[in-house]
Amino acid sequence: MRRGIPAVPGGASSPTAVRERERDRDEGLLRTEFAFELPRGYVDGSGTVHRSGVMRLATARDELVPLRDDRVRENSAYLSVVLISRVITRLGSIEDIHPGVVEDLFASDLAFLQDFYRRINSEGHTRASVTCPSCQESFAVDLAGGGGGGRLGES
User: Fold this and answer.
1) How far apart are CA 147 and CA 127, in angstroms?
2) Number of H-type helices and E-type strands within the chain
3) Distance set, CA 129 to CA 135, 144, 149 (Å)
4) Among candidates 56, 34, 42, which has minimal Cα distance to 144?
5) Residue 154 to residue 25: CA distance in whole angstroms
6) What's the rounded Cα separation, in Å, for the pair 57 and 89?
7) How far apart are CA 49 and CA 40, in angstroms?
8) Along the 155 residues of the chain, how does pLDDT read in single tens digits?
9) Beta strands 127-131; 138-142: pairing state
10) pTM for this predicted structure
């Protein structure tokens, strides 16, 4: 099976990426990976900021294994840290995503990833309906290019 995101410069909203997503949808392929852009970015030990990343769809195992983790048993809020670390496959140039990386994210980036996780795993897409506060016009935005809010499992 083909992976769901294109590896193209310009990210998930580039014209090439949009065409590839449309082709995948037309061909009936299941998209299993989703590109995202963090609002602030992860700052590694050398000071490099990593903003773009890839999250894959969660499996049942991804949601069950963290429940056996002692850190989650001691503090249920830690569940989202472990779960997010299991489904992010890349963050900037970092491919070894572990709970320590997620712990060091800014709170707004963690909130963004929690909402992103919920959207791709329960709704199957990264779009959100919004209303312009000035003109009251409703339109859809793709959270893969930014957004945020919410905790895992909340609507």
Assistant:
1) 10
2) 6, 5
3) 15, 14, 14
4) 34
5) 27
6) 10
7) 8
8) 334 433 333 444 555 555 565 565 656 778 899 999 999 999 999 999 999 999 999 999 999 999 999 999 999 999 999 999 999 999 999 999 999 999 999 999 999 999 999 999 987 555 666 778 888 887 666 655 444 444 444 33
9) antiparallel
10) 0.65
DSSP strands (E only) in the chain? 33-43, 49-56, 88-91, 127-131, 138-142
Tokens of 149: 């809010």
Q: Which of 104, 106, 69, 62 is nearest to 84 (CA)?
A: 62
Name all contacts of 81-86 with Cβ < 8 Å and 24+ positions apart.
Answer: 81/110, 83/58, 83/117, 83/152, 84/110, 84/113, 84/114, 84/117, 86/58, 86/62
